[in-house]
Amino acid sequence: MTGGELDNCLPPELIDSSSWPWWNRAFARPPKAIQHLRAEWGKLRALSARESDLPLLGAHGSKIFGRSVCCWDALDHYGMETFSFHEPHLHVRRPTPVENRFVSPYGRLVIETRIEAYECDASAIEGIWASKSSEESFASVDEFGEDFCRYKGWGLNMASLKLACRHDQVRIFNSPGIDVFEARAWDGRFFVGNAGGSHHLAAAIHLATRLGFPLPARERLVLFRLNEKTVSWALENFHLIIVPTNSHFEALSSARVLAGVATSLELPDRLGSGRLIVFPRSSTLAQRLATELLSKGYQDAGAALQIALQRQKDFLTCSKLPW
User: Which residues 6+ apart lie within 8 Å of 11 measured at CB?
Assistant: First the structure.
C-alpha cells in the first residue's frame, strides 16, 4: 500500500492535525506517536484472510452429539474462582495492574450447579455426548436409535428393548455413577455425558418411546448457566474478536498499539478454533480497529455471547430442571 493509498484509508483520528505541535503542522509531518499509529494501521489493513483460515466459533457436527454444543464453560480456567481473558499460565503469578483489567470482578463466566442423584425418564435425553457415529447426521436421539435398530435387525418389541438396555456400556441403567447428565442453559438440550454405549442407549430410548414403556434413570446432573454479571462486564468493556491462529500475532500487535492494551487466548476445542483477541472499548479508534478486523471476516465473539445470554434467559423461563 502506497503512502497516498494509506492516507485515504486512515481513521480521522490519525489525520486530524489540530492537536499536533505547531512545528509538525508547519512542516506537515505527523508526530512520532502518530507515525507509529499510522504504521500499525497500515499493517492491520494489510492483513488478509483466506476463507479456509477463518476461525470458527460454536457448534458443528450432528445436532445430537457433543460436538454440536457450544461450551462457553470451557473458557473458565480449571480451579480458578474468577474468570479472566488471560492464558492459564499467567495465573501462577500475581497479575499486573494492566492485566487486572482483563479479570472479572464478578466471578466465573459460567456457574455450575451439581446434583448427585437426579432421576428422570431416559426419553428426556436429547443428546449423547460421545459416539463413534458423531460424524453422521441425525435429527434426534430417536432417529439415531431407529437407525441402529434397523442395522441390528431388531423389531419393535420387549425382547429388543431388553437387549439394548442390558448392554454393559449403557451405564445409566446398569452402573450409575460413571456417566453424568448435563444441560447448558444457553443451549437448552439435556445430554448424557457417556463413556460408551451410545448406539444401544439410543436404541433403548427409541424402542421404549415407541412401546410406551418407561425407562427410569438416576445419575449425577451438572447444570451450566452463564453468569450474567460477568457476561455483562465482558460485553460492556471489551471488543471480543476471533482471529486465525496463524495471523493472531499481527492482529494482537496492532490491537495493543491502536487500542492501548490488548490480550489474547487460544479458544478451547469445545468452543471453537482460532484465538480470541480482547481489547477495551475505550476510544473511537478501538471501535474502528474492531470494525476493520470484522470486515476481514473474523468473528465477533461478543455478539455470539450476547445471543447465548438471550437464549439462556428465554430457556430458563420454561425449563423444569432444578436450576
Answer: 41, 284, 285, 288
Q: Cα–Cα–Cα angle for 210, 214, 220, nearest 5°?
A: 120
Comparing 183-187, 203-207, 230-234, 294-298, the range with the smallest average pLDDT is 294-298
Count other Cβ atoms within 10 Å, centred on residue 123. Answer: 17
**262-299 pLDDT, tens per residue?**
999 999 988 988 999 999 998 888 998 999 999 988 99
Widest distance between CA atoms in the chain:
93
Q: What Cα–Cα distance (Å) separates residue 228 from each residue in 93, 98, 281?
A: 28, 24, 19
Residues 204, 165 contacting (CB under 8 angstroms): yes
Distance CA 205, CA 143 (A): 10
Q: Are 112 and 74 in contact (CB under 8 A)?
A: no
Whole-angstrom Cα distance, residue 286 to residue 60? 31
- Who wins on pLDDT, 18 or 243? 243
CB count in 10 Å sphere of residue 251: 25
Cell output for 242: 476471533
Dihedral angle computed from the Cα positions of residues 119, 170, 175 and 166, in that order, rounded to the nearest 10 degrees: 110
Beta-carbon neighbour count of residue 292 at 10 Å? 19
Q: Where does the pLDDT of residue 9 fall: very low under 50, low under 70, confident under 90, or very high at 90 and above?
A: low
Adjacent-strand bridge partners of 276: 242, 265
The reported pLDDT for the residue numbered 56 is: 62
Q: Which residues contact 50 (CB under 8 A, 6 or more apart)?
A: none
In angstroms and rounded to an integer, the radius of gyration of the C-alpha atoms of the chain is 25
- One DSSP character per residue, 205-218 reads HHHHHHHT---EEE
Q: What are the tens digits of pLDDT across the range 140-159?
A: 999 999 999 999 999 999 99
